[in-house]
Amino acid sequence: MEKLLEKYAKVLLENCLKVEKDQPLFISVNVERIDFARIVNRIALEMGIKEIYVDIADPYLKHEALKHLEIEELKKLSLWNKEIWNVYAKKNAAFLMLASETPGLMKDIDSKKLSAMTKYSLETRKEFDNMRDRSELAWCIAAVPTTTWAKELYPNVENPVEKLWDKILEVCCIKEEDPSAIWAEKIEKLKYRAGKLTSYQFKELRYESSNGTSFKIGLPKKHLFASGNETLANGQEVLVNFPTEEVFTSPDCKTAEGIVYSSKPLAYQDIIIDNFNISFKNGKVTEFHAETGEETLKELINICENSEMLGEVALVPYDSPISNSNQVFLETLFDENAACHLALGDSFPECVEHGPTIDKKVLFDEYHLNKCDSHVDFMIGTKDLNITGITKDNKEIPIFINGNFTDEFK
Q: Is the predicted pLDDT of residue 326 greater than 90, yes or no?
């Protein structure tokens, strides 16, 4: 296992982030996986990287603080303060965000308090987010297991953490002889697909599924479809999500109409939201229901200005590696790459021509790209989902039939 973890670390640093010797490295990690952070740190030092900062998060410390303190008292703690992210953003650091889950940990915490602290945390790292929006930072989100997360997925397995590590390494192709070559080929395929979709300049996408989803949304002028492989302002290419199977764009946030039904649970701030639906009119959420976590769903929809509008539409075939693993991960990084999804909140400036060089207020006013401090993905892809693109001259182009891309977009 140690050799595979070293291989994983090298792929993240060399192939995803492409960290340079004179570039600082910023690693955020759950305290439980400090062992993997040590491996990344060692590999980085062997690569010649001299400045490494490790930002350690402990969700259990947060949980206890949320139980006993009020919001203004919580803001005095370092647990939600991400100012250090701004410091390293200004240093042009490469950011490796090692995601983990502790499902259900926050279920006894007042959703309004949790929402307030989530919002506060986002407010403390504005410079980082602004630089990322302008494609000025190398960054990558990857996953590492925690005991709680692994036990939730594999309650009857003797060593659930090892099992989850095994699954993560499998879907990331780390067990293959040459994962770099596999990902290079996959990225080229995603680039082709994104380019093909962009070439149509669809004015609208329409979604239909037997679970009740009946939805349409407009796309802005000069929109671009993108993939998890991002070209930075300096021309460097980085893989920002690892693994990735999606192509996506940002919609006209004022045009969403209809209803969508979730196809997978959403793990949000260590609370599970499941079996939910969301209705839209004139771009905004008008109604929502959830069998599990409805109060949390309400809070994330209303967490900040414009969080009730959409900032992303993403296309992922039902017949894809993560989906075919038949594993619901309860971690958005994986689950969003197993199903078509939407995102409430912020949009991606790179999804319109020259977007990263345009002020976000202009992108909102003129292109209707959502401007928001929050961004939350939720999955709607099913095995019978049909998606149709409507061209400017009202031709209907099938994009998805029965959950998968039509031959033209494969």
A: no
